[in-house]
Fold these 2 entries.
Entry 1:
Amino acid sequence: MSLKFSHSQFFEAGPHCDAFDTLLFQATSRKSVLSLTLGASDAEISLSEAANVSAARIGLAELSQIVLDQRTPNAAQVLYPLLGRVTSIDLPAGSIFALRSHNRSMADFWARNLFHALSSTHNVEYVQKFDGRAGDGPTTVEEFTKRYLWVLRDALPDSNLKRADLLEQLMIDFHFPVIAYENEVFKGGMKALRRINAATLDDQRMSAEDVAASKRFNNTRSNLLALLVE
Amino acid sequence: MSAFFTIVTVSYKHAWSLTKTARSVFRQRDADFEYVIVDGDSADGTYELTEFWKQAGLVDRSTHDPDTGVYDAMNNALDLAQGQYVCFMNSGDVFAADDVLARAKAFLENGQHDGCMGWGQLGDNVWASWQTGEGFKMASLGFCHQALFVRTDLLRANRFDTRKHKTDSDTLQLGRFYENGADIPIVPEVWAIRGAEPGISANLEKTRTSILDTLTSEYSGLNSEAGSAIIEFRRKCTHVSEILDLLRGGDETVRTHLAYTVLDTLFQKQSATLSAEQVRTLRAACKSVLGTDWEDAENRLLDAQIKRTGLIAEQRRSKADLKAEIKTFAEQEDTRMARIEVPASREVYPAYQIGLTSFPARISTLHFVIRSLIKQSAKPDSIHLFLGRDEIPNANWLPSQLRAFEASGLKLHFLDATRHQYDKFTHTEHFDAQMPYVIVDDDVIYQPYSMERLLSAHGKYPNTVIGNRCHMMQFGADGSIAPYGDWTREARTPEPSFNLVPTGAGGVLYPPGFFADGPVIDTAEILRHAPYADDMWLKFNALDKGIPTFATELSSGSEWYHRYTPTMRAGTLMAENVELGLNDIQIGQCAAWLTERQPNWRDLIKDQEMERV
């Protein structure tokens, strides 16, 4: 079951959309997965009956070279989508925290739940998905990023989030510290992302022998911990 | 000529744990060793137990004097040791196999090494040492002292730190050996198994104080804050930034030892909380610290961890196989139970109780045994299961199928510390000693009429011990008891006999009052005379009371049981008792005990034989 919304329908604040509310109700009552796919100029919301899914799945365009895992600090997870642009979200029923309030848009519903998923659970997976960039004017993806920023601004006040060139500055800040954050979450989150990025770059500079040794180290450790932690 | 090894067990108020440890030492019987026990004046039967072993020639020396703690006792043991190498196998811990000493000797006998170090196991986990060197002063690096063999003179020259607050004196001592150039290589095989009882390291706060003291006094470059960060990283993998700072700057010895500590910690369970990026950064920092030593260190570490993974996986597979076997067993038993009707007996029997004990390796199949006891034609008033908290802490550790029988009369008794097979009848405060009391084993599925046979015979011979499976004691021409191996198996006589010896496996009914008082439940007497042979102890107590034994018709032809449970092989006493000759030693001890109490007890048997003639 899926619903398609135009750019304006998706971002428009206003009255309830019965079809969406029905889908949302079904997702929570059947413990299904509610999915959002952002296209070039529209948004598709669908329901899938995937059993035993507990991880939220975030599709990112221009997926950064760095790889986050379940133990990456939440502060870094919250900032991560701003480095890659969100193109899809799969939310298992257990990860739906915010419901759609009366006069807020559907985009707001997804942005809030994205924030909740990244800040409150470690159970998040990332995948690379089509970036949806097409045509003139702001795309659905870019507009959604803005909405996500609004949620951040609301939850974690920091005057830097009001800067017009914020996304550009974030990309630079990812490599060199250029933003003086007021909020400790952003400070810690970006520091963690920079550290991960530096380590990833180190890996890329490694020789083939070093890469093989590192792989052996990690595989040996993973095999052992899989037994110890099971 | 002195023995090659001195095995030392220090113990304090752990007499029953000591029986387990000593058994594993006795099993190393082909090796060249002496056995020394250092007891801190326990007054819990340890003295009596040690005397029993000394008389049996199994323990060479012992002391029973107060000490200031485990390390003081270990130092005292060094004065008693006459062997070339010493291993401390403390109370509650055991050797992992019967040939550990033989393997250690094969490694050491050319005299080129100052000692050697095997691996240890605790529960499901294997402690895998991989790095030799003075880094042991900072962390245990997989070290298990029960698997360590060190030259006696070296130990005497570097005694354990006995200050009250020290809990890490063993690792500190090992670090000092290496610091002074000792050659103690690692043998990557599991040589020792730690007991489940909490050891000296169980008190986290006390351990923390001790390790912090070691870190700040052994490493001039470490202050209390840095030391605390190392302890917290080792325990919980927190304080990663502080650890990275320490690895990247400061004292070179600290950095090197910390690199080994970090690498070892990355292969412990607590490191699962670290992110991939943190692991990568920590590894890179360690690599940078170790420089040219890195490749060797990493290879040693990974080879050890791959082997450790294999060992743990193999144990998991065995567990899974046993689980599958139990599943098949359950299906077969369910089918059998569904097919048989067990009508209540028409006879009226007196109320009776059943007592048994068990331990972790058999607990998963115990419910089959209990079901066979509940589905009896003559139902018991209650079934008393005795478990030691040192092995099974509480009812939550029991399978639900077992706990379900609480509604049908199963009574669970958790005791502070297990007395093993003696638990089933020495805790008289938990059962009515004035009622007939049947002792059974925890690995036997009983026939539905087993208990009725006992009760029926009890009706006929009320003041008699009744057994569904009995052996016939034999005597030599001089009146001495013949070796256990020469006794007639699964025998019976038309009337009660003093010669018959019931074995617990078949189920044995003891008449009312048998366990009410007297030496039969005196644990010091038990430990002195028969620590491993409850059947013999009970038999000689019956003779002491002038009570004969009657064997039911089940005693001939192995009809006394339906089948054994799949966990039967675990922890059986039979092998040690028979192979080590312990049965005959204990029979001799019990007979001497009885002769002291009743010099003419053999007349009971002779008179009975005369009557028959």
Entry 2:
Amino acid sequence: MDSDVLLVLVVATALAFDFTNGFHDTANVVATSISTRALRPRAAVAIAAILNFVGAFLSLEVAATVASGIVDADAVTLQVIFAGLVGAIVWNLVTWYAGLPSSSSHALIGGVVGAVLAASGPSAVLGEGLLGKVFVPALVAPVLAFAVAGIAIIVAYRVVGRQRPGPVTRGFRTGQIISGSLLALAHGTNDAQKTMGIITLALVAHGTLGADNPEVPFWVVVSAAAAIALGTYCGGWRIIRTMGSRIIKMDAAQGFTAQSSGAAVILAATHAGFPLSTTHVISGAVMGSGAAKRLSAVRWGVAGNIAVAWVLTIPAAGSTGAVVYAVSSVFGAGLVGPLLIGALLFAGLIALGLSRIRQTPPAPEPT
Amino acid sequence: MALIVDGGALVEVVWVSLIAGIGLTLVFSVTIAGAARASQQRREGRAGLALAWGAVASVCAVACIAAVVVAVTVMLHK
């Protein structure tokens, strides 16, 4: 009975993480379109939400779960998964509050690694996997996207440079709607699967599904798709503002270039099976499209804050995951610890929501 | 290092990203420039040039649509 309730709690926490993932990553997809006025803000997030939902159904290859090859599979229990998810949710909320785009995948991996460290010690963490699947891609993604977008914007300006600005801007804005839609679809395909993978992992740990090639139940697909779409629709406006206008003040050509270069890098990585973070790619592409026009066009202070958030993601989410596991295990291996922490997290979220409603007027939609 | 990172996949990501990202931007920019020039030539009464630029823009637009189809196919077969 206890393990059934714990499973329900883990599934609910995984869906809450999925919601924050959509909420946090809306900016990756819509910020440039909103900033260049290719789309109105509400229309942009609505399209992104629908395409995230659709994207979640495009591919169900959840053969590898999010932490596979990074931690010892035997060390992953329901309590570890719960603690990892809480670590990721807390980091997503902290970075959202600071308006900083950071990788939800890295937050989840960090949370799980921290919880596994607390549960089973350093021997259960596979250092090579962490280096090869997390740290190296985290360096490659922004640098590659920066270079691709930087060269692409120079090419674009060369080609359209002598044309009247009106038709050119309209053309690039139209292109942004298409490239933004592709990004939203790719995001749904990649990120909703993380939650599907984590819920499937929980179902296996609980014994509901067999460990050999478990199939993702349809209700898991639908609920993960719905949670990420709902989060996307709610829109993390703080991060959208950072990504859309605080890193660079972009024109339509830069917006299109950032999105299309980002989509190219993400899809190339998907094709090659090389794990790259959508957030790192799009942030790098936005900076590249600005820096190629003029180095001083990029607000390097903002870019530096974002880089610091990236560096801190794994340790911060990991520390939270470890503390949550340690506190939770004080009450034994059963339900009491996760239930108490779940209640605290829920109360914290309600308090945060109420204080936001009381203290700040509704943010005007960027126009 | 080679065992830790899949070097082949990394190299593939780099060159495919460069070609796809820069290529798509180039082709889409030519679409826009071609359409703008076609419109300008039409206004100036040069029907032949307008037709030629219109054809360039159309071919590039088709190439962009093909790129979108390839992108969706990659997502479907990952």
